[in-house]
Amino acid sequence: MNDSIVIGAGAAGLSAGLTLARARRTTLIVDAGRQSNLAATGIGGLLGHDRRPPAEYYAAGRAELSAYPSIEIRHGEAVSAAREPDGTFSVALADGRRERARTLILAPGMDYRVPELPGLAARWGTSVFHCPFCHGWEARDRPMGVLASGAVGVHGALNLRAWTTTITLLTNGVALTDGQRDLLAGGGVAWDERPIAALDGPGSALATVTFGDGDALPVTALLVKAVLHQRSALAAGLGVTLIPPDEMLSVAAITVDPMCRTGVPGLFAAGDAATSVPPSMAAAVASGYLAGASAAVQIAAGY
Ligand SMILES: Cc1cc2nc3c(=O)[nH]c(=O)nc-3n(C[C@H](O)[C@H](O)[C@H](O)COP(=O)(O)OP(=O)(O)OC[C@H]3O[C@@H](n4cnc5c(N)ncnc54)[C@H](O)[C@@H]3O)c2cc1C
User: Which residue minimizes the CA distance to atom 31 of ligand 1?
Assistant: First the structure.
C-alpha cells in the first residue's frame, strides 16, 4: 500500500511528489506524458525558469525526484479510481495493474480546447497562444490578433495593448454590439467580424489570417480564447464538485479548499485541474506543493 498516488507528472504532480518525497512518504506518480504546454518553445513567467523549454523543465523535475528513495514515477495512464469502504484508494491503470494508496492526488491537467481552424493546431504554443503573460513578450511590438468574441474578446484585445499597438479583434463571423465596437475604437483596437478561412505562414510562424472572402490580414501572433475541460472522468467518478464555468474564464475546475482538499477525505487536487483562476506553471507548482503537504499531514495524522 502506497502512502499516496499522484495522477500526473506535470508541474503540479511533480511538485506534489517532491513534497511527499521530502516527507518520506511512499508515492507512486503515474503519468501519461502529455503536459499541456509541451508545444511551447519556452515557459514564460516561471521564476527561475523563464523561457526554459518545457520538456527540459520536466526532465529537471524528474531528476530532482530521483534523489528520493520513496518515489516511483511510472509512465502509464490511470483509467479509473475509487475510494474503497476502508477509506483508501484503488487506481486501475491502462496496462491492467491496480494500485492502492492511503491518499490520492489528482493533477491530470486540463484539456485546452480552442476553435478548429485550418493552420491553428500547427501553430499552437508558438505563434498562436491563449495567455499573453506566457507568450506575449515574444510577440511584442508586432501586429497581433485576438480570436474571440463578446465581452471576452473585447477584454482580451484591450489587454493586449501592454504588448503591442497593432491589435485586431477577430470574431470569426460573430457580430459585436455597438457598445463593444465603441469600446474597441476608444482603445485604439481594430476589429474584423468576417469568418476566418485559415491561418497562414512559414512553419509554425504566423504571417496572415485569411478570411472566407479571400482577403488576408497581416498578423504575426494570435491570442485565442481556450476553454478548459477536465481531461478525464477520474474526478467526477470520485465524487468531487466541479465549479461551473463562467464566461470570462471557461474552466470546469475541481473545487478545492486553500489546502487543495476536495472535500472527499484523502482526496486532493492540484494544478490546472483545480484552478479556477488563469492557469500557470507557477500556480501549478504552488498548488502541487500544498496538495502534497496536505496529503502528508493527513497520512501522519493517521486518518
Ligand atoms: C500551449 C500552452 C502553453 C502554455 N505556456 C505557459 C507559459 O509559458 N507559462 C505558464 O506559466 N503557463 C503556461 N501554460 C499553462 C501551463 O502549462 C499549465 O498551467 C500547467 O502545465 C499546468 O500543470 P499541471 O501539472 O496541472 O498539468 P499538465 O502540465 O498538463 O500535466 C498533467 C499531466 O498529467 C497527465 N495525465 C492526465 N491524465 C492522466 C491519467 N488519467 N493518467 C496518467 N496521467 C495523466 C498528462 O499526460 C500530463 O503529463 C501553457 C499552456 C498551454 C496549453
Answer: 10
Q: Check: CB of residue 199 under 8 Å from CB of residue 118.
A: yes
Task: Read off the C-alpha cell for 108.
Answer: 491530470
Residues linked to residue 99 through DSSP beta bridges, in sequence order:
91
Give the number of other CB atoms < 10 A from CB of residue 240: 21
pTM of structure: 0.94
Please report the atom of ligand 1 found closest to the CA of residue 31: 44
Residue 2 has pLDDT above 80, yes or no: yes
- Per the structure, the complete domain to which residue 122 belongs is given by 115-224
- pLDDT computed for residue 303 by the predictor: 58
Which residue puts its alpha carbon closest to atom 50 of ligand 1?
37
Coil vs helix vs strand at 82: strand
Nearest ligand 1 atom, CA 39: 1
Contact 232, 219 (CB under 8 A): no
Domain shared by 90 and 175, yes or no: no
pLDDT(251) > 90 = no
**One domain, residues 287 and 275:** yes
Q: Residue 132's domain is classified under what CATH number?
A: 3.50.50.60
Q: Is the pLDDT of residue 247 over 70?
A: no
Percentage of the chain surpassing pLDDT 90? Answer: 88
Confirm or reject: Cβ of 191 under 6 Å from ligand 1: no
Look at residue 276 and tell me whether its pLDDT is greater than 90.
no
- Domain-ending residue, one of 186, 204, 224: 224
State whether 215 and 234 are in the same domain. Answer: no
